[in-house]
Amino acid sequence: MKPKRTTLAAVLKTTLIYIELIVVAVIVIYPLMWIVGSSFGSSKGLANASPIPADTTWNNYINLFRNTDFPVWYMNTLKVAAANMVFGVLLSTLGAYAFSRFKFKGKKASLLTILILQMFPTFLTAIAVYMLFLNFGLLDSLTGLTIVGVAAQLPYNIWLLKGYIDNISLSFDEAALIDGASRTQIFIRIIMPLASPMLTFVAVLQFAAPWMDFILPRLLISSEEKKTVAIGLYSMISDQTRNEFTLFAAGSVIVAIPIAILYIVLQKYLINGLTAGGDKG
Amino acid sequence: MNQSQNKQTAPAWAAGVLSAIVWGGGQWLNRQYLKGLLFFLISAGGITAELTTGHYNDMSAGFRLRDNGGFFLKGLWGLVTLGTQPRKMGISGLTPGDHSIVLMANGIIALFVILILVFFYIWNIRDAVRVRRRMEESGLQHSSLQDMKQLWESMYAYIVLSPAALLTLFICVLPIVFGVLIAFTDYSRSNTPPTKLVHWVGFDNFVTVTQVFSWMHTFLNVLLWTFVWAILATITTYFFGFFQAVLLNNPAVKFKKLWRSIYILPWAVPAMISALVFKSMFNGQFGPISQFLLDKGFTDERIYWFTDPSHVSLARILALLINLWLGFPYFMALIGGTLTTVSDSYYEAARMDGATSSQTFWRITFPIVYRATAPLLMLSFVSNFNNFGVIYFLTEGGPANPNYNFAGNTDLLITWLYKLTLDNRLYNMGAVMSIIVFLIVASFSLLNLRKSKSLEEL
């Protein structure tokens, strides 16, 4: 081992690294600070928005809950996100398990198909989904929104999870088979627990997706009481006649904070999940 | 067992023929009553669906598909004709007419269900023949339950996959078929059902795109910018994320977890919100950045970042920079994770040989990380190619370009498609563009996949 020496060059290098880290941190945080600050601003317009408002007030938050449908939008999105997470994880794990552990006719073809399906632009299918839901009475319903949300992410999730399950040693399955476990038992008792880092990753992605999804709810949801936060927030600032930037800021803060906390708390799993996905592709 | 052998007089093909005439008939002959009943019920279900959805009780004017057909027959009729009678304003209000698009959608659904039924039909015949043949050869009589248990075992993968497959079929594949078919019709804002009928027009829309200069001009320019955008957006986020991950990996850096938590924020905050925040910050008239530059005397007048047609590249560069803000944490997290898997022994060996830190990086770190992340780099390219959110919420495609057909200077193909289909209701042109976009993206990705050899591992 070399003795630790603090040379001038090393100090300079460390200082430079810290300067870079701080500069980037400021650039990352400033827009977020600005939106938080604006949410406490007393005036409505964009022109007066600032990271440190002159006189802070909770009015925007109070307004958001008293005078808008924000609580309804929030609950709607929460429901969709939760359902999206449960069914998305369940269906994609089942699919990935089948693709990873069994040899069957048409396996390669179906894997290729789901890969290709992902490359179709959403709009090509948007009108069709609309028509389909019109037929089945799923238009303007949160159930319909969830079904499309789960289906849209399925191909990507199956590929991601398949790569991960491929890396779980087959010897676990074989040992369980010898003990007389059925394949469903193997799936629930062995594959699901061992794949849990990746399942967490997929679950977070599935939970976060409806909070930012704009196109599908815009197309499928029409009534005010079924709107999701993405549509509701957008309507606050997209309308030229309505200048409710500070209200929008307050709503954004309430949406963004839980998801940001989720990402920060689970970052270990996210990184594990990403890395495993990268290994196999 | 002997007893059953004596009675087997009918040959295998007879069981097949019987199943072909009446679903489950062959299974009945094979004494697999339960299985026969199940097959029969499937066919009965199909016929019931057709009869109950049609109007077969009222055929006084003879049988006409339009009026009497049920789910299947009328569905197919609608898919072929797209309707024959538009809704008209009569003396007593609107007359009932055909809605071409609903007919097309129903037709595709009917077609899909028919294909599934045909699959079961063929299975029913083959099963009858196979079981019969086995009985002749071995003389063994299996009960339906034994057979189905065996089926459960051998079909386990399919059974596990079926929920995902059905969902994909109806929510992904069926709409794509529909979308592709729209490209061959004249469905647009000047021709909307139910007061007008949509017609099949063959390749006319494709001919329009390639022959009318304004369409081709817009398409090629938007395509070019989309490629530039996708390549630059992927490279900038990848390398900056890489840089940040390497810096954080430096042993001199304290509080790694804190730094990482800060940098992960742009990834964690919903992208729509961040994009809208940036849009407001860079708002030309009221935005704080313009105001700040003006107040400090850097500029004489306000800068209209996203709407000034004389500064097209300003809007484009800014969009790329904001995309960098949004996108680098993903690669930082990914590469940070990969870096921990690189063995220390490589670096020790390099240190012994007296390699400089830039040599170590380019010869060891970069190749290893690149190999591990290349497939995701390709996925990132595809998602940047179709990055709707950033452009739509940030610039709305602006600055406007009067020489383009319904597109602005920062519009990507995907936002242009959105404007064509949902804002301007040129459904048929939107569908044509979608097909072209798909062909480009798919061929590009498949080429890459081939190169990365991940296809062979399937």
Structure description:
The complex is a heterodimer of chains A (281) and B (458). With 281 residues, chain A is mainly alpha-helical. Chain A has helices at residues 8-39, 59-67, 70-101, 107-117, 122-136, 142-166, 170-178, 183-194, 196-212, 215-220, 229-238, 245-265, 267-280. In chain A, α6 runs antiparallel to α9, α9 (196-212) packs across α13 (267-280) and α11 (229-238) packs antiparallel against α12 (245-265). Chain A is globular, with a radius of gyration of 24 Å. The model of chain A has no long low-confidence stretch (mean pLDDT 85). Chain B is mostly helical and 458 residues long. Helices cover 70% and strands 1% of the residues of chain B. Chain B is built from 21 helices and two strands. Chain B has helices spanning 2-7, 12-21, 25-29, 33-53, 65-68, 71-81, 100-138, 144-154, 156-182, 204-211, 213-249, 256-263, 265-268, 271-281, 288-295, 312-339, 344-352, 357-385, 388-394, 413-423, 427-452, and strands at residues 89-90, 93-94. The longest helix of chain B has 39 residues, at 100-138. The two termini of chain B are 45 Å apart. Chains A and B meet through α1, α3, α4, α5 and α6 of A and α7, α9, α11, α12 and α13 of B.
